[in-house]
Every structure is written in C-alpha cells, then in structure tokens.
C-alpha cells in the first residue's frame, strides 16, 4: 500500500493517488471531509484557514461508496488559486516577460524553512519554487490518505486518535488518556480549542498562544497518537526496515516542523532503571497475554505487543515570524529581515491531526504487509485469526 502526493501551496489543487487499498471497503466522503476540517482547526491558526475550505473530490477507485481495489485518486481544490493564476501558472511566460517581472518573487530565504537549501539543491533563484512545495499545505492530502487508512482500520476494530499534550511549555495530565476509550479521547479532543484532553491545561495553552501572537512570535509543542486494537506481532524483528517502531518514528518525523519522536516513556527511560522501564507479562484465558504496564508504548523487538501503541512527536515553533529573523538576500548578499508569508502563531493542534493520520496510514500499511488483503473480508479473517492464535499461544 502506498500513496503519492502532488501540488503546490498556491497551485490549483492538491492530489494524492493511493494504491493497495483492499476492495469492498466502504469509504465515507463525510469522514474524509471531517478529517480535513479538523486539520484546519485549532486555536492559533492564521488567515489561510479562513480562505480555504478543504473538501475532497474522489475521482477514481471508488464506486457507489466502496473501493474497487484499483488506485484511488483524491483531490482538494485550492480556493485561493484565482489570485495566484499568473504567479503560479504552468504556462510559459508571456513574450517579453522575464522572471524578474513575476510578482511575489522571493530572494530572501527564511531561517528555519527549506528555502535556502532547496534553492541550492534545485538551482532556483526564485525561492517561491521551493516554499510552495515544502509548505505544510501538502499535509492536506496526507491527512486525506490517512483518513482512508483510518476507515480501513476501524473495520478491523483498530482505532487511532491524536491529541495535544504540550504547548509552549504547558503540559497536560498524561494519565487522562489511560482511562478513556478511543471515542472518548476523540470527543474530548474535539471539544478543546487546542485538541487537548486536559481542560485546565487547554485554557493555559490558549493564553500562551495569544501571548505569542501578540508578541509576533510562535510556539511549538508535543502531540501524542494512541493506537488501540492492534494484534500482537505486527512488524518484524527480522529486518531493520520492517520494525514497527522504526516505521512509526519515520512517519512522525516526516511531518513538517517535527524534530523529535518517542514511544512509551521515550527519553525518560534514560533516567530510570530497567525495573521501571520494562513491562511485566501476564496471562489469562479471557484476555490472553497482557502487560501490567505499557512503558514501552506497545512495541517490543520492533513488533506490536497487543497493548496500545503510544507515540509522541515534538513540533518546533513555526519559523515564519511576524517579527522576522535576519537573512541574506541570495541576489545581493545583503542582510535583510526574512520575508513574511501568511502563518500561524501555533499549529500544534493541527499537527496532532496530521500525526494521527500519518500514523494511521503507517499502521494500515504494516498490517497489509503482514496479512493477505485483496479484499476486506480476507483481511478481516486474517487479523482475527492472528488475535485467536496470540490468545491461544
């Protein structure tokens, strides 16, 4: 199972083509659009979210609400395209025009962005050629692909939810999700302006975001994704590139502005003895093998244990500041204040939605690497057989 995305931030549309989805999967456009709506939400978002109302168009691979087994194409139209047609159009420049005549040309790379290094790599003198694709706008269709993965996982009684645990140094109570179901976590996150499960911390986070915006600054944070219902043995200890935790870490780190990832206790393990890190194993006829704790975050030896997968990612503060940092003009080599693009004071809540969906995709992909899945019923039977085998082992 794989997907490819295409499109620029201010181009006509964003597109993803998904290959490998089993046939006979019911696909809800409403759920797809709800995922995109959540990605655009959260306190601290900028004006772009008021311009774009992201809606999915399914143009192939689905008939009468069910997947065909052939590639699925999803498209999201950029409503702002009408103002960018001459700036971002694919047609050659009109006779007599040069690149110097193009409006909004950028020669000043912004610190913390892909602008300068991307310009060097692809020899772009107009750095808009870099920032249009490196923009987090591309995560729109990554979320769409992840939404289809979530719908697949739900058919297998596997649920993926994301939420915020930290913004600007304010920490939520991390014990809260331990006592909630996946649906309760999702509902509580949706009720929060910052997608946080801790009501008191949510209010403090909103205040911190407002203060950063007023100061012309930005703040980052930490998001957590929880996967429940995954049977034991998904992933592999045999090859490094098939380890489940490695693939989850890659997925989390592939999100724009993410700079760290951990599972379970994560970096806290460095400060603890082994007796306070590893999870003791228990067995009962009703539940099969379980762990007394879940400090390792649901994986051992690169494979799922059957306990909830708990993975966190840290998002740096967005580098586009309204009090911009200094940069160097690539044409004149003079020092300037970095150019200002539309930006958010904090996009951590939206990033939790992106993380939820990229993790859902990776879990679904590893599942389909493990079990036969030409059609949904075949996959269901294979996953259920694994659950039974694990319980009776």
The parts where pLDDT drops under 50 for at least 5 residues are: none
Count of runs of 4 or more consecutive helical residues: 11
CATH class: Alpha Beta
How many beta-strand elements? 17
Question: How is the biggest beta sheet arranged?
Answer: 5 strands, antiparallel
CATH architecture: 4-Layer Sandwich
Terminal Cα span: 29 Å
Instruction: Report the β-strand fraction as a percent range.
Output: 15-25%
Radius of gyration: 22 Å
Strand arrangement across the biggest beta sheet: 8-7-9-15-10
CATH domain fold name = Chorismate synthase, AroC fold
- How confident overall, as mean pLDDT? 94
Cofactor: FMNH2
Binding site for NADP(+): 39, 45
Organism: Chryseomicrobium palamuruense
InterPro entries: Chorismate_synth, Chorismate_synth_AroC_sf, Chorismate_synthase_CS
What topology emerges from the helices and strands here?
Blueprint lengths: L1 E5 L6 E7 L9 H12 L7 H4 L4 E5 L1 E2 L2 E2 L4 E6 L7 H4 L26 H8 L5 H7 L4 H16 L4 E9 L2 E2 L10 H9 L8 H16 L6 E8 L15 H10 L4 E6 L17 E4 L3 E4 L7 E2 L2 E2 L4 E7 L10 E3 L6 E3 L10 H23 L5 H17 L1
Antiparallel strand pairs: 1-2, 2-6, 3-6, 4-5, 7-8, 7-9, 9-15, 10-15, 11-12, 13-14, 16-17
Helix pairs in contact: 1-6, 1-10, 4-5, 6-10, 9-10
Report on this structure.
It is globular, with a radius of gyration of 22 Å. The chain has a single domain (2-92, 102-392), classed as Chorismate synthase, AroC fold. It has eleven helices and 17 strands. It is α+β, with helices and mostly antiparallel strands and 393 residues long. The strands form six sheets. Strands 8-7-9-15-10 form a five-stranded antiparallel sheet. Strands 1-2-6-3 form a four-stranded antiparallel sheet, covered by helices on one side. The mean pLDDT is 94. This is Chorismate synthase. FMN binds at residues 133-135, 256-257, 301, 316-320, 342.
